[in-house]
Amino acid sequence: GETAEVTASPEANDAEYLSPVSIGGQTLNLDFDTGSADLWVFSTELPTSETSGHTTFDPSKSSTFKKYDGATWKISYGDGSGASGDVGFDNVAIGGATATSQAVELATSVSSQFVSDQANDGLLGLAFSNINTVSPTKQKTWFETIKSQLENPLFTADLEKDASGTYDFGNIDSSKYTGDIHYAPVDKSGGFWEFNSKSYSIGGTKSSCTTCSPAIADTGTSLLLVDDDVAKAYYAQVDGSKNDSTQGGYVYPCSSNLPDFGIAIGDYIAVLKGSDLTYANVDSSTCFGGIQSNANSGMQIFGDVMFKQYFAVFDAGNTQFGVASK
Ligand SMILES: O=C(CN1CCCCC1)Nc1ccc2c(c1)OCO2
Q1: Is 69 a catalytic residue?
Q2: Does the bond joining 136 to the residue before it have cis omega, within 30 degrees of 0?
Q3: N or C: less crowded end of the chain, CB within 10 Å?
Q4: By percentage, how much of the chain surpasses pLDDT 70?
């Protein structure tokens, strides 16, 4: 069976990580997103006013591209961004592994967030295809298309703080983590890599929260979006912190010593170091937290803030998600 490895390069503030993907021989830099299941790209079908700075996929230049007549797609993300367009099939290669006849969704419209993010040429969804948005027939993700060719039906994420990391497909590279991998069973019925998270710790003090929302492992989200009462409890321990609506969340003096924050991945508490829980500067003395409220959306979203501190295994063979120290 095959294995494949690809670099994941951070944008400013580690807001997102981009990886090179070859589609019909054309290489675009895509955001690998375990929180969605559409593979869509900036394309020559977009208005040129919206493609400045982006690499666009040109189906007319691919000898292997096949149009999927009548199929369309339309996606919107939790941050309010979105895109839509039409569909075709092509050969899609990542790190030397090629999925043939992979559904490739061509954008004919993208929201302003994507127009202005010139490093991002589209998304590669790694969630489950029951949430793919192609109509009239949902399409498989790249991972689902290639899974049967892989040595093992899994992939791993090793994202780094202000440095390039890797995604690996088909194998677990033991040089990338230390100690044990701690797994939680995944409920994939909602389409996400979803698991229970019924406790947390702040500065080493553990709390159980039987009413806490389930969590998803989401490489496409920068931050850690936790239930509102948990975010409140965390920042109650940070002097001078406040939930500032103009900044869009909790801010505090950059001189603060942030407490460690433990998140439950099933029965395992992964402790995130407080020293790595600041996301960005708001100004020279005010900082924006990596932990933010999910506004009680009913889902906790464990994004890149977690992946930068823990090696992650997305195991479709056993429908489980695991983390290990690194
Ligand atoms: O939207 C995303 C991630 N998304 C991945 C694809 C690119 C655009 C950003 N995350 C997200 C998920 C839930 C949210 C949220 C953001 O803000 C409030 O709730």
Answers
A1: no
A2: yes
A3: N
A4: 100
CA distance 279 to 237: 17
Kind of pairing between the strands at 199-202 and 286-289: unpaired
Both tokens of 82, joined, read: 């979105």
218 classed as catalytic = yes
Asked whether 212 and 230 are in contact (CB, 8 A), the reply is: yes
Q: Are 151 and 49 in contact (CB under 8 A)?
A: no
Residue nearest atom 19 in ligand 1 by C-alpha distance: 78
For CA atoms 304, 134, 110, 23, the dihedral sign is positive
pLDDT in tens, 48-99: 999 999 999 999 999 999 999 999 999 999 999 999 999 999 999 999 999 9
Partners of 33 in the β-ladder? 125
Please report the ipTM that was assigned to this predicted complex. 0.96
| Active-site residue identified among 31, 38, 168, 218 | 218
